[in-house]
């Protein structure tokens, strides 16, 4: 427990602030994207659909796939940033807390869309958002575990030499 506190204390206050600001910025971008009307959102999606269809061919990529993929990626980023912020703040991974925070934000995002012209609140979108958050937070967890294993291996090698 003391070692975990020391690890958290080892990060500069500026790093903690920057991580939380990046998390808040990601939330603001998601809010802004959710504030766009259905027509604006479709026009934006169409650009990506056309680009991806040029790469992968017609028929494979639809607006539906692009939109749901965007939901997933937005929340993968948010889940990663929440997990990073918790790790930098507390010195240990808090993957469930990161996922819970991102998922709760996804609920508010879906409710927000009730008030945007042509948009709707969908449980399926919340589930996609939460799945993205799980991936993002898990990526951070795996990165931390890999870094710890490498550090332990270096320490063990130094002790043996």
UniProtKB/TrEMBL annotation:
Record keywords, A-Z: Membrane, Transmembrane, Transmembrane helix
Chain coiled-coil ranges: none
Pfam families (alphabetical): VanZ
Ranges for domain VanZ-like: 20-142
KW Metal-binding (keyword) present: no
Residues that span the membrane, as ranges: 14-33, 126-147
InterPro entries attached to this UniProt entry: VanZ-like (IPR006976)
Domain of life: Bacteria
NCBIfam families documented for this protein: vanZ_1
Name this protein carries in UniProt: VanZ family protein
Lineage of origin: Bacteria, Bacillati, Bacillota, Clostridia, Eubacteriales
């Amino acid at each position: 427990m003391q070692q975990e506190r020391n690890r958290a204390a080892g990060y500069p206050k500026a790093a903690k602030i920057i991580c939380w600001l990046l998390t808040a910025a990601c939330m603001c971008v998601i809010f802004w994207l959710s504030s766009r009307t259905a027509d604006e959102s479709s026009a934006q999606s169409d650009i990506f659909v056309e680009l991806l269809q040029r790469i992968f061919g017609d028929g494979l990529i639809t607006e539906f796939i692009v939109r749901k993929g965007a939901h997933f990626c937005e929340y993968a980023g948010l889940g990663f940033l929440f997990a990073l912020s918790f790790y930098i703040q507390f010195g240990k991974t808090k993957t469930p807390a990161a996922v819970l925070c991102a998922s709760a934000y996804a609920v508010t995002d879906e409710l927000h869309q009730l008030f945007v012209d042509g948009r709707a609140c969908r449980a399926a979108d919340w589930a996609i958002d939460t799945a993205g958050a799980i991936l993002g937070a898990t990526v951070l967890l795996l990165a931390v575990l890999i870094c710890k294993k490498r550090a332990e291996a270096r320490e063990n090698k130094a002790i043996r030499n």
